[in-house]
Amino acid sequence: MLDGRSQIRRRLGLRLWLSGGWLLLLVLAAVFAPLLSPHSPLEQDLFLGRLPPFWAHGAEPGYLLGTDSLGRDVLARILYGARVALIVALAAGSITGLIGSTMGLLAGYLRGWVDVVISRLIDIWMAFPPVLFSILLIAVLGPGLVSIVIAIVVIDWTRFARVVRAEAMAQGAMDYPASAQIAGRTRLSTMFVEILPNVLPTIVVLLTLEMGIAVIVEAILSFVNLSISTDDPTWGGMISEGRASIHQAWWVMVFPLIALFLTVLSFSQFGEGLKDRFDPVLR
Amino acid sequence: MKILRSILFRLASTAVTLVGVAVIVFFVIRVVPGDPISMMLPPGATEEDIARLTALYGLDKSIPEQFLIWAGGVLHGDFGTSITARRPVIELVLGRLPATLELSIMALVIAVIIGGAAALTGTRERDTKIEGGIDVANGMALSIPDFLWALILILLFGVAWPVFHISGRITPSLDLPFVTNFYLFESVFRLRFDLWADIVSHMFMPALALAIPLAAIIGQLLKQSLKETMHLDYVTLARTKGYGENHVIIREALPNAILPTLTLVGVQFTFLIGGTVIIERLFSYEGLGNMAIDAVINRDLPLIQGIVILFAVLFTAVNLVVDLTYALLNPRLRHA
User: Fold this and answer.
1) DSSP 3-state of B145
2) Burial (0-12, 13-18, 19+ Cβ within 10 Å), B112
3) What is the pLDDT of residues A211-230, one digit of tens each?
């Protein structure tokens, strides 16, 4: 039994290391994109259009992953696209987490009419198709990074609110918050000082998962051409362009797709890994 | 009596949800910048023309006034007129609904088959390498959303090894005898299996992309419930009676283990329907979602409203059906 457990722990550790490693690599790539990119991500050269990646016949040295139909360097665009992806992940993830968790805490711990109102809002939100809702919001707010972050926050706060509400309700039913109040704490301070720390591991896990979702939403929006301006490099935008010329230049779609795939997979595996770390049974 | 009262309560709260959705979408799209009327007129249109058309679509009134007029129409089954297509919204939306329903149902069927097979195999081969493999596959399938699966499938089976169509609902050059828009079902009833094969080869990849995450959820939860049931006394009894492992799993354990999965599938099915929006776009499939994105891009306000409301009705209807089925299947609730 003990052996099995340590084996599970080793496997979990590997998962955290691999996904965390990729995410760290991504952060470095995004921060040092100007130093790492051999070309500007916006520089067009129609004579160098649709160059294949370095190992294929007809490749041009200096364009490791080839170029797109306008002759822009695919590698440079992926590196700069990582900036957009990470900014959206961090900003949208943390704001969504903050607002959603607060709503969930309030509903789950205070109960009463606060819970009724927030739960009803969650019900209404769940009846919207999320992708359509986000496209609609971007149409309202206009394209741009800030709009994307706002759209994700507006749509996804329920993800945190639902889970945190349930957890806060379970914690609130225990003895310790009641004793804290007898000891003289107000309800609000009990909520933040006593309940919140116990719900925090769940929030951290949700946060990691939400960052992966934010990256995907940004990719979907730039795929539908509603993200930031079409010139700026985003993975979704590159995939969308690559989809149009997939039979002539597969690499324009495949490389950003690999980057997106690994990033989304890493965020979710990192979150799952953390969840198991926090799980007292396995610990 | 108690069950009737809770059904009535559910219906009432569903109505509140739908009204909430209608109000939010109505006001949100009214603050969209970009004037739909000037977009539909040719560049040389006079101020008078613009004013006349604005009045024709009722866009000259205040937003609350517009809402009341629109809500009054909806109660009579009139969802307004699409600005771009200049046809009744209800006609456009119901024309596209069958395509989206067929896609969603096909995805659900695929998910149940794959997920069910994974759960049953995993239970039968529990604590072996096979179960470990199924767990890893489930984990992967769950981590990657339908949008990415769709792109991967397009690359694999549309480009690298082109066995399926990656665009449209049916080959456009085919002669269609259909009277309804339920192409998939009608082709079966008409015994036109040539058309059926063409439709399936268009639908299979979008449906599979939608199905993969749901299949993983079904596989995981059902396997977990099955494994818990396998330890119960009555299952051991069936085994001592001499029944084989397959019989024990399918006949004895499955009926008791399936309830939690069933509820979850209902909730997840609404996520799947929501996912059709982007998947239809990716595969240029002529369903509601694809029309919705065009409507947003063209600022076709009445059409956007109609589609969002229809989606909300679908979602709440699925949830309602799930709750009722759960009440009927669960003996504890049935006799309460």
Assistant:
1) coil
2) middle
3) 999 999 989 988 887 666 66
Q: Which of B24, B277, B294, B315 to mutate to test the interface with A (most CBs of A within 10 A)?
A: B277
Report DSSP letters for A107-127, one per residue.
IIII-HHHHHHHHHHHHHHHT
User: Torsion angle of alpha carbons B238, B243, B244, B245, nearest 10°?
Assistant: -10
Cα A273 to Cα A248: distance, rounded to the nearest angstrom: 40
Question: Looking at this protein, which amino acid is placed at residue B254?
Answer: L
Q: Does the distance separating the beta carbons of A265 and B29 come in below 8 Å?
A: no
Contacts of A219 in chain B (CB under 8 A): 147
Q: Which residue has the tokens 């069933």?
A: B262
pLDDT at res. A1 = 43
Q: Do B21 and A140 touch (CB under 8 A)?
A: no
CA gyration radius for chain B?
24
Asked whether this complex has an ipTM greater than 0.90, the answer is no
Contact: A120, B16; criterion CB under 8 Å: yes
Q: Does the predicted TM-score (pTM) go above 0.90?
A: no
Q: What does each C-alpha distance from A271 to A5, A19, A77, A207, B123 come to in angstroms?
A: 20, 9, 27, 8, 26
Of the ranges A71-80, A256-265, B242-251, the best mean pLDDT one? A256-265
